[in-house]
Amino acid sequence: MELALTHEGVLNSLLSEPKTKPELVAECDVSRTTIDRWVNQLQATMLMHRPGKRFELTLFGQIYVLKFNRIRQQLSHLVKLREPLQQLSDEIDIDPEVLEGANISFYEGLAPELAEKLLTRPGRVRLIAPRITCVFSVLFFQTPDPDLEFEILIAEEVASQLDTYLTNQQLSLLSIASVRIYEMYDSSPFCLALVERDERQVVYFIFEGSQTGVGVIESGAKEALAWGEELYDEYRDRATEHEWHSPSQPFGALPNREQCIILVELMAGNVQHETDVMRRVTSDEADNSCRSESLCALDKADYIEWNRETGAISTGPNFDDIRPILELMMNNPEKFPSDW
């Protein structure tokens, strides 16, 4: 490992393609004497050789460098998860050997790749998702596999927000796959997914990292699966299936597209007066009438405070309730229907 750290530049340069000595000097930005010393050391350990005019990695050297790069990347991802891992260890008893051989990934933003990994193939997926961002990034996924069996445990307050803001038509997942949603009354400090498909089981531990993004620890080891099953069952036993408002309309009404645009602009500081809303289209009285109706609806729902006398608009007492969804819309527009 020490050899790879010392000669990382040369090794990765040769991993891409064979090089001459002058090319190594130029690419690594070191003296020819230094390259001579490094080449001798690497040849002595059979990491590289020179079968012709160029130096190249041996088969052993290629495998060694690929392994080294993977370990280095895994450690980099692990460092980003040090805070949530500490929080996890404070909340539950965890044996580090259970996760020692796991694969660690880190995604920027809300990790659409993770939703694709969980939902685009047939099988059974059980998910603990205490945070609203994780819940919505999954539930807004547009193309789940129709043969998917999906069970999700969400926090009580998140279920309430689903009732308040979402419509059945927006959730392809509900109409395509088999979905059961349960409410947790004691939220977990982590997101956990148990995936069964192709006669294989995998457990995912999903965390918000110390930097913006989502960290994922993935393992198919027997010990990790048993530990994940035990954790899931513990929360599932204390959860209750969510009761929707009605069988045909499980969710209440999300503010429509026009209203959400107003709220997003308000959150961004671009709306402070009713004229900021009306001037978006000044030539069409019907559009302005629609915007006036939108302001009335938002004011009635306490998402905004609209002073009819002065025209001033500000956030209302319920604005923070919808803020996470507005942020989701801003950061992940591709998760919403194109005509919405």
UniProtKB/TrEMBL annotation:
SUPFAM superfamilies with a match to the protein in the record: Winged helix' DNA-binding domain
Look up the signal peptide feature and give its range: none
Which residues are in coiled coils? none
Q: Which residues form the HVO-A0261-like N-terminal domain?
A: 7-74
Q: Which residues form the Methanogenesis regulatory protein FilR1 middle domain?
A: 117-238
In its UniProt entry, what is this protein called? Putative transcriptional regulator
Species whose genome carries this gene: Haloplanus aerogenes
